[in-house]
Amino acid sequence: MFEMPMLSGERCYREHRRFFGSRLTFDRYYLRCLGSSISHDEKGSEHLMESLQPIRILLLEDDSIDAEAVARQLSKSSPNFEFTWAETLVKALEVLGSTKHDLIIADLAVPDSSGTETITKLRNLCSETPVIALTGLDNDEVEREAIDAGAQDYIVKGELHGQALARTILHAIHRQVAENQTREIVNQLKVSQEDLKEQKQLLLQKNEKLEKLYATSQEIVDNVSHDLRTPLTVIKDYVAIIRDGLVGDVNQEQAEMLSKILGRADDLNGMVDDLLDKSKLEAGLLHLSRRTIGLDSIIQRVHMLVANRANTKQVSLQLEAADGEIEVYCDAEKITRVITNLATNAIKFVPQGGNVCIRTKLSSNGEDALVEVVDDGPGIESAELKKIFGRFEQASHNGTKQNSGVGLGLNIAQKLATLNFGSIDVDSEVGEGTVFRLSLPLPDPACIATRMAEGRTSEMGPVCLLALDIPGMQDQRQSDDFERFICGSFRAEDLLFRQNDDRWLLLFSGNHRDAKNWMARTERDFAQMNRNRPFGPLPNYVVTFFDCSGRDDIEAVRDVLRDEWSQSRETVPN
Question: Helix 23-34 to helix 162-243 angle, to the nearest 10 degrees?
């Protein structure tokens, strides 16, 4: 065993720089391999923070002449190599077991081992230490075997050269450091994968638990809502009977009190409806029956529902209808709830003796009808306008906040308007009053189809267009019954348009195979419904698919829908 003489750190640094030929090149290799660090002083110059440590090399070589040749060549290139010499593999393994080395140079033929088996045994003991194979044979096959066994490089004894040998050593260390780092990263990734698997399993368990809790909460809301509705209905009926004097005379004061009780019962009934609708909206189970209907019929229904409340509070409730009948495309029951909510809020916040007006008109864009609920109440501050459509939010009208309700009414109203391809906005000025404005689409199928596509959060899938015909249909009641049946058989993303009393156009969200599956189910339901219909069975209907130039995207189907609808409008007699 022998050691090379050591030089001072600064001189070592200069010697190494000399054979690398560049300070930057040497810094990158040497500091990365040895773990030294470079810092920047205030002037930005680089300097070494630590004295450069020697590179410790274990040389496994049974021939002392060859060992001295290796040491001599390295000493010519740089003095900062520290050697430990072992003549046998056993001795080398003992040294490695007690002292850490930066590199191993191993002869492939030593007394107690030969060939690549020497490399394998060294790598098994020191998997993170680079090994350079040393042999007297210049043979490509032997070189490949040595590399495959784990050697970082291969040196032929007769081709030793100082600077090349030093560079080979530093490169081998550098590659091994990179390999060690990669192995560590891979191990960390494996650990991370295991952690992710465990976390995924825990997340799945928690999600399953949350789904059960959510389903339970939905069930509780539904059950409580339904349980509340029955006694509420009984309370309202009996209070109305007493107030109207059907079981005995009541004076004016008693009648007013009973009217207030009815109003509060209506409030509670509205809360129950809000909770049910919220539950169904979040679960995606809210059924929609959208079709063409006269807007005046909806407004008259709203007036009937809120007139008593307005009279009780002594608020003037007026209706202003546009000239001529306006037809809209919507779910009449859901839109009635929306307008009722807006009118009820207006009556609630308007002071006694105030005015509320529900007026209808056509929008300037030619695509919508507008329903405006106007009041001359205290108005809503601008800061409140930004949050009134939020869940569980209640507007403060000029500093006055009503405590009745749970703050779901406007939030649900906005969602119901959106589901009907409309919108709600509000204008208000403190001290002047408030205008809630509901827009609803006119029965223009192409325009509504566009809004449906634009309202999707993701790209719209395939669609197809069908015609439903009942030849010879003459009975208006039968036509209405068939339309109600069809509306109850498809999903919220399907659109039905009535061309006349015996023909409908159906925009179906799905491909032809999906539509045929729907048709098969609908035919079975239709047959069952017909057997139980009190007024006799409906005539059979015929389904026809439109050819949209072989395409099933919304643009192609919309163009065909527009043309078909335009032709049907042209044939309508004046």
Answer: 70
Among 99, 134, 160, residue at a domain's last position: 160
Q: Helix 116-125 and helix 89-98: axis angle, to 10°? A: 20
**Across the beta sheet with 503-509, what order do the strands follow?**
495-500, 503-509, 463-469, 542-545
**Is 367 within 8 Å of 481 (Cβ atoms)?**
no
Residues 354-390 have pLDDT tens digits of 999 999 999 999 899 999 999 999 998 888 887 788 7
pLDDT at 24: 41
Residue 385 has phi, psi (to 5 degrees) of -60, -30
> Is the pLDDT at 284 greater than 70, yes or no?
no
Rounded Cα distance between 279 and 216, Å, is: 12
Is 90 part of a structural domain of the chain?
A: yes
Q: Clarify whether residues 391 and 367 are in a common domain.
A: yes
Both tokens of 569, joined, read: 């409008």
Full domain range(s) for residue 150:
47-160
What pLDDT is stored for residue 367 in this prediction? Answer: 93
Give the Cβ contact number of residue 6 at 10 Å.
13
Q: Residue 496 carries which DSSP code? A: E
Q: Of 160, 177, 204, which one is at a domain's C-terminal end?
A: 160
Whether residue 99 is contained in a domain is answered as yes
Rounded to an integer, what distance in angstroms lies between the CA atom of residue 169 and that of residue 55?
9
What value does the mean pLDDT take over residues 257-269? 79
**327 φ/ψ sector (left φ>0, alpha ψ -120 to 50, else beta):** beta
CATH (domain of 102): 3.40.50.2300
Helix H or strand E segment including 107: strand 103-107
Strand 109-110 with 495-500, pairing: unpaired
- Helix, strand, coil percent values for the chain (each to nearest 5): 50, 20, 30
pTM over 0.70: no
Secondary structure of residue 246 in the 3-state scheme:
strand
Q: Please compute the mean of the pLDDT values over residues 315-334 and round it to a whole number.
A: 91
Residues 463, 364 within the same domain:
no
Task: Measure CA of the first residue to CA of the last residue in the chain; give whole Å.
Answer: 116
Helix (H, G, I), strand (E, B) or coil at 159: helix
- What's the CATH code of the domain at 467? 3.30.70
The secondary structure of 346-391, three-state, reads HHHHCCCCCEEEEEEEECCCCCEEEEEEEECCCCCCHHHHCCCCCC
Q: Do 355 and 494 reside in the same domain of the chain?
A: no
Using CA of residue 207, residue 208, residue 213, residue 218, what is the dihedral sign?
Answer: positive
CA angle 462, 467, 469 (to 5 degrees): 160
Q: Which of 334, 336, 333, 331 is nearest to 289 (CA)?
A: 331
Do 411 and 387 reside in the same domain of the chain?
yes
Q: How far is 505 from 523, CA to CA, in rounded Å?
A: 17
pLDDT band for position 12 (50/70/90)? very low
- The answer to whether 384 and 399 have CB atoms below 8 angstroms apart is no
Strand pairing class (433-441; 368-375): antiparallel
